[in-house]
Amino acid sequence: MVRALFFILIVGALVLIVLSLIRRTPQARRASGDDTGEQRALPPPPSAASDRALSRATVREFLHELAFDAQLGVSVPAEHVKVVSAVIGTLQVAATSPRYAVRRPLLLPEIVRAVNDSDTTRRELARLIARDPALVGSLLRLANSPIYRRGSTPIENVERALTVLGTQGFRSLVAAALVQPVFRSSQPGAGKFPEIVWDSTQRAAAAAELYAAGVEVSDSFAAQLVALVMGLGAIVVYRVALDEYSLQRLEPDATTLASLLDAQTAEVARQIAASWDLSDRFVQALAEQKGDDNTQPDSSLGRSLRFGLTVGALAVLRANGRIDDDVGLATLVAAGGTGERFERLWGRLTAAPDTEPSRVASR
Fold this sequence. Notes:
By secondary structure, the chain is mostly helical. The protein has a domain at 48-104 and 189-362: Orthogonal Bundle (Hypothetical protein af1432). Helices cover 66% and strands 0% of the residues. The chain has helices at 2-32, 48-52, 56-68, 81-91, 108-116, 122-129, 133-143, 158-179, 193-216, 220-248, 254-275, 280-287, 300-319, 325-334, 340-349, 357-362. The protein starts with a helix and ends with a helix.
């Protein structure tokens, strides 16, 4: 009798264990993804945005290939190493050399002071700018470009530009117009590099400005100006390199030029900022661009500049058909540009490239 009762208890316990396992097994399989049936569950695919985003290094490489109309090699050719050494030596003093020094635009300090002075009227500011006819021409040309233009009505005079763009937008426009002539190139063999750099720089300035205002909540004009100085640094590096190639009677090599630009532009821009007596935060922001691409700059201005440089290059690549919108927007988001305002910015920045600087400045 006792044995029979004991046997019944054992059987009952085994039944409970089996039933428990039957109930729990599907849940365990779903949780672990270890479903061995024909309809095996797959892990969710990576997001399209992260999957298509380009690295900063790749963005720069694509931009260089566009600017030089050539595919880059893996390394600098042996016969061009001496060019690199000579260029680096010259760049140590390029910011103060009469041949390469980028002088601060004469009206820049006065215009910045006037714009920042709440007592300055629009008419007074317009008269100040009118003292430089070349500046007026460049300014109006830029005001009607896709990056700056608001609405469909053309802007035909300085006062209207002030009215349409507002003080902040007008201040940004003036800074771009002041530095634009430097992007003109009279050197033989310059190709379309100055045009591509100017195109990328003005787009970078607009992107850095928005990022500073919307994400960093910092000085947007400083972000715009530091991006323009970075573009000037690239022009100086390129001019020094072309001169050295001419001296050594070598044909310029795209891989060598790209290597020099990547390694030296930020330092030359830092020298330009110092020679212009720009504040320490400008100098720091430019110095922070020399670090590893994976290291985020410490300063808000440095982060705004890093974002602007990436997005400016992306926009030029998209405008020239080198990438599509999916890749561009994915990289924009990965760089920190999320939200409707950055989508609107992307649409504005990817308009067709404006007229080349040399033509714009001469009209």
